[in-house]
Amino acid sequence: xxxxxxxxxxxxxxxxxxxxxxxxxxxxxxxxxxxxxxxxxxxxxxxxxxxxxxxxxxxxxxxxxxxx
Length: 68
Description:
Elements (H helix, E strand, L loop, with lengths): L6 H14 L4 H10 L1 H6 L13 H10 L4
Helix pairs in contact: 1-2
């Protein structure tokens, strides 16, 4: 699955940012965590029990501390 071939997921993510972007930061983080485009972009769909992908954790920390 090529990350940029997911047009519907990307459009839905834009809508999510429009809906929650100026609201509660906590709500934005929760919605972003559930967002299929973010899951695809961070390769979380490839997570395995014995080989956990840490991209989400690093991105979450960066985003929550304002590095994005």
